[in-house]
Design a protein that fits this description.
The protein is mostly helical and 279 residues long. The protein is built from seven helices and no strands. The longest helix is centred in the C-terminal third of the chain and has 49 residues. The N terminus is likely disordered.
Length: 279
């Protein structure tokens, strides 16, 4: 966002050039190392923010649990609050007590996704990892594979596939229509939408923040050649843009947590459904 604003060389009440909002080029950083392999982008800024996100998630657990006690301190209480929140609001509501064995996975998934999302707000980094479709796609594919593994282990291959393709209570004569629809819905659309929901939200949110930042910089021109009155107006306009930027940044932080929650909730629902069998 900073670079998007800083690259804009003109201002309101200036030389007459107009506002040029940042575009999708924000999400295609120049490779630091390009391997020249088809379909790859090499080592880019995404690699750096992914490593930082991993370190943030790991540091959270290390510093909050390294001195665990029966009577928890503030750090341990925060970690326990997160675990209990995921357990009581996600795993047990979707899988019952049997979902407790998936609790470590779901807590890790939530913290990892949230860490990747907040990279869009870290000064100097400002690029949410999940604004690149490849990352949420890998996470969604992992959940999809686990969904199948859990279903096959619980009901066998045939039972799992039948449960996903043949809804209970559907008359036999309509199955030729229902089965292809269920196959498309469960095995194609489900993992795709699971990934795209997270990607699209992070992509749009980051682009909107970048527009606010660039607009605020464009509107800031206290030394306007048109005179001090226009200079003061530009500062006022820029102040409104700054207020909007700060307000939306706070809202975006909330959205980042919500999207991590939604991704984990859906993963838990899918796995719970695979455990249950027929639907």
């Amino acid at each position: 966002m900073y670079s998007a604003a800083a690259e804009e060389g003109c201002h309101i009440f200036g030389t007459g050039c107009g506002f040029s909002p940042p575009g999708t080029e924000l999400f295609f950083p120049t490779p630091w190392i390009d391997f020249g392999l088809p379909g790859t982008s090499g080592i880019t800024k995404y690699f750096l923010v992914l490593v930082v996100a991993l370190l943030v998630a790991s540091a959270f657990w290390y510093f909050t649990t390294r001195r665990s006690k029966v009577v928890p301190g503030r750090g341990q209480s925060l970690a326990e609050l997160l675990v209990f929140f995921i357990r009581d609001n996600i795993t047990r509501t979707t899988m019952g007590k049997e979902g407790d064995k998936f609790l470590p996975l779901m807590v890790t998934l939530f913290l990892f996704i949230f860490s990747m999302n907040i990279m869009g707000l870290i000064p100097g980094l400002q690029l949410p990892v999940n604004s690149n479709l490849a990352f949420p796609a890998v996470l969604a594919l992992t959940v999809f594979v686990l969904w199948n593994v859990v279903g096959i282990r619980r009901h066998g291959f045939g039972g799992h596939v039948k449960a996903r393709l043949v809804p209970g209570g559907v008359p036999a004569w309509i199955l030729p229509v229902v089965v292809p629809i269920e196959a498309l819905s469960n095995f194609i659309i489900r993992p795709v939408t699971h990934a795209i929901r997270l990607f699209a939200t992070m992509f749009a949110g980051h682009l909107l923040l970048a527009v606010f930042a660039a607009a605020g910089w464009y509107l800031f021109n206290p030394t306007s050649p048109m005179g001090p009155l226009f200079g003061a107006l530009s500062v006022g306009y820029s102040g409104f843009a700054l207020i909007g930027f700060l307000a939306f940044t706070a809202f975006e932080l909330f959205i980042m947590a919500v999207q991590a929650y939604v991704f984990v909730l859906l993963a838990s629902i899918y796995i719970g459904e695979a455990m249950e069998g027929a639907h």
